[in-house]
Design goal:
Blueprint lengths: L1 H15 L5 E7 L14 E8 L9 E8 L3 E2 L14 E10 L8 E6 L10 E4 L5 E8 L12 H6 L5 E10 L7 E7 L9 H16 L1
Parallel strand pairs: 4-5
Antiparallel strand pairs: 1-2, 1-10, 2-3, 3-8, 5-6, 5-9, 7-8, 9-10
Helix pairs in contact: 1-3
């Protein structure tokens, strides 16, 4: 079913605009956790839906996350040595839920790692901060796929929340220390045919239910 849905969405995205792209930001804070963690640290993220194959189909979500030096990744599989911040990272995910609500993991970054083709990277910067970059491909996810979220991502208006959020967990805050909801910031001219995509998804689901 997911393959059929992804195919339908991809075809309509391609038909919409050869230059379509959508960008998102997230500011990760303790105040967005449910309940709030009280952490005063802040991380930031920038994301963009991209065409990786040159075929005018948006098929991946690129992301870059800037994490302050207070966060120590040495206990994870991030492959970073020499980072000795006070906040020991345990797991790191993108979850699915609206702001103010906790939801399941949609894409694992650390524990689990949902990336299947080695796009995940962590870089230790000179100031001790960490830069994470990754690419969430159309068929990747934790019990779901990026394809399932395309309608909401493509339909989001500038400044509008998307039902996905980053959650950075630490030993001190097992339920999550920093959370950041994705907020849409589409570039000018990015006007995907959401109505057609939604119709295609509905058709695919009806077909699979027969």
């Amino acid at each position: 079913m997911q393959k059929l849905i992804a195919f339908a969405a991809a075809g309509l995205i391609a038909a919409g605009s050869a230059h379509a792209a959508t960008t998102f930001t997230a500011t990760l804070t303790g105040g967005q956790e449910v309940p709030p963690s009280g952490s005063q640290f802040v991380a930031t993220a920038n994301l963009e839906l991209v065409d990786t194959n040159g075929d005018d189909i948006l098929d991946a979500l690129n992301m870059t996350v800037e994490i302050p030096s207070a966060f120590d990744f040495s206990a994870t599989d991030a492959g970073i040595d020499g980072n000795d911040g006070s906040q020991v990272v345990t797991v790191f995910h993108i979850h699915s839920a609206p702001r103010g609500v906790n939801g399941p993991v949609a894409f694992g970054i650390i524990g689990p790692n949902s990336d299947t083709d080695m796009d995940r990277m962590f870089t230790l910067n000179d100031d001790g901060s960490v830069t994470h970059s990754n690419q969430w491909d159309l068929g990747e996810g934790n019990g779901t796929t990026l394809a399932a979220f395309l309608p909401a991502l493509l339909a989001a208006a500038p400044g509008e929340d998307v039902g996905l959020y980053f959650n950075l967990h630490t030993e001190e805050f097992r339920g999550g220390e920093l959370r950041g909801q994705l907020v849409a910031t589409p570039i000018p001219g990015a006007l995907p045919l959401f109505a057609g995509i939604a119709a295609a998804f509905g058709f695919a689901r009806r077909r699979m239910s027969r």
